[in-house]
Design a protein that fits this description.
Elements: H1 2-19, E1 27-32, E2 41-46, E3 60-65, E4 71-76, E5 84-89, E6 109-114, E7 119-122, E8 133-135, H2 138-154, H3 163-184, H4 188-199, H5 205-211, H6 214-227, H7 231-244, H8 256-283, H9 286-293, H10 299-309, H11 314-321, H12 325-339, H13 344-353
Parallel strand pairs: 1-7
Antiparallel strand pairs: 1-4, 2-3, 2-5, 5-6, 7-8
Helix pairs in contact: 2-3, 2-4, 3-4, 4-6, 6-7, 10-12, 11-12
Protein name: HTH luxR-type domain-containing protein
Domain HTH luxR-type: 290-355
Organism: Flavobacterium ginsengisoli
Length: 355
């Protein structure tokens, strides 16, 4: 009997050494799911900060299939170097298409924070797929701590029937999450996800922002510092602008009267500029006019051109704009054709002469 236990222990140890090392590369996401279906498709998705419970085809980055033992693996160098929110999932019923299931009996997805240098391994967990994991990302651990803190706060909330009492519990939840955020959280993404949790509550964000802007300003500054002009920062900035009914960056703007005067001056200058442009264009040779007209770019092409001028690689451009690498290459080809250039250096030189 003792010998059998020793053999089982050694066998499991060998399996662990064989499987887990294979999970490690530049980044690696791997593990097992228990299913009778062979070649089960497993999806890896990149999420926006407020998409924890939303699933669409546009989120999906890659897919792979399990082998005969239920093992799956994603690895390589294509993910972002910065921490971002990802999801791994597999449809319980492929006929019904994309679906998220999470209850006491079944679970088919898992959201987690990850970067290009991390590893995560999912061990077998019955019908609750992806429920047991080992993630090397420290930011993800801090996020789990926040989730546990929030779960404790919401215990018993559903039993409260009085509307005033319900609103008070929500207000208490928000204040405690904000205090926890200030005391325990430094990563920008977790601050953003804490805001997302507050946003899902029936809470007056506009009034709270106007009375207590520090929480929101701290998130914005952290995002700008770590994520620069990526979608996390831009989406949150847009969210705050909508909540406050003003452009967030106008908090240091001049008095309304001065704004009116400046607006009139800008309008006058715009008219003068238009007239001058029209006059100059009328005397330009046809070939120069044609060149300028060819510089009309789409919004996406303008963004990509700007990032190229900032010496961003194609991969970095794809990460920042949340589009595929092939889409970036297509836009760059279109840019080159419109600008009549063949490389990035000629493109930069072109933009020196034309705004």
């Amino acid at each position: 009997m003792q010998q059998r236990k020793i053999i089982r222990f050694l066998t499991s140890l060998i399996v662990a050494f064989l499987i887990i090392p294979n999970c490690y590369g530049q980044y690696s996401i791997c593990g097992h799911i228990e299913t009778t279906q062979k070649n089960k498709t497993v999806y890896l998705s990149l999420l926006k900060y407020d998409e924890e419970t939303l699933i669409t085809e546009s989120q999906i980055l890659f897919s792979t299939q399990t082998d005969s033992t239920g093992y799956f693996e994603f690895k390589g160098q294509l993910l972002s170097k910065k921490d971002k929110l990802y999801r791994i999932h597999s449809n319980i019923d492929d006929i019904k298409g994309l679906q998220l299931v999470s209850n006491s009996d079944k679970n088919n997805y898992y959201n987690f924070i990850f970067s290009n240098t991390d590893t995560i391994y999912f061990s077998k967990s019955g019908n609750r797929w992806f429920s047991h994991s080992q993630n090397s990302n420290n930011t993800d651990r801090l996020w789990r701590n926040l989730k546990q803190f929030e779960e404790k706060l919401t215990q018993g909330y559903s039993e409260i029937k009085n509307k005033e009492a319900q609103q008070q519990t929500i207000n208490d939840f928000v204040e405690k999450v904000k205090a926890y955020n200030a005391k325990n959280i430094s990563p920008a993404l977790i601050k953003l996800l804490a805001f997302s949790d507050i946003k899902r509550k029936n809470f007056d964000l506009k009034t709270d922002f106007e009375k207590n802007p520090d929480f929101y300003n701290d998130i914005l500054n952290s995002l700008k510092s770590y994520y620069s002009e990526t979608s996390y920062y831009l989406q949150f900035q847009d969210e705050i602008s909508k909540i406050s009914n003003t452009v967030f960056q106008q908090k240091y703007s001049f008095h309304k009267t001065l704004n009116y005067i400046l607006g009139i001056l800008v309008l006058i200058l715009a008219v003068i500029s238009f007239l001058l442009f029209k006059k100059v264009r009328s005397i330009q040779p046809k070939e120069i006019q044609q060149e300028i007209s060819n510089l009309t770019l789409t919004n996406q092409e303008e963004k990509i051109a700007k990032l190229i001028l900032e010496n961003k690689s194609n991969k970095e451009i794809a990460d920042e704009l949340f589009i595929s690498l092939s889409t970036v290459k297509t836009h760059i080809r279109n840019l080159y054709a419109k600008l009549n250039v063949t490389n990035r250096y000629e493109l930069a030189d072109k933009f020196k002469n034309h705004t």
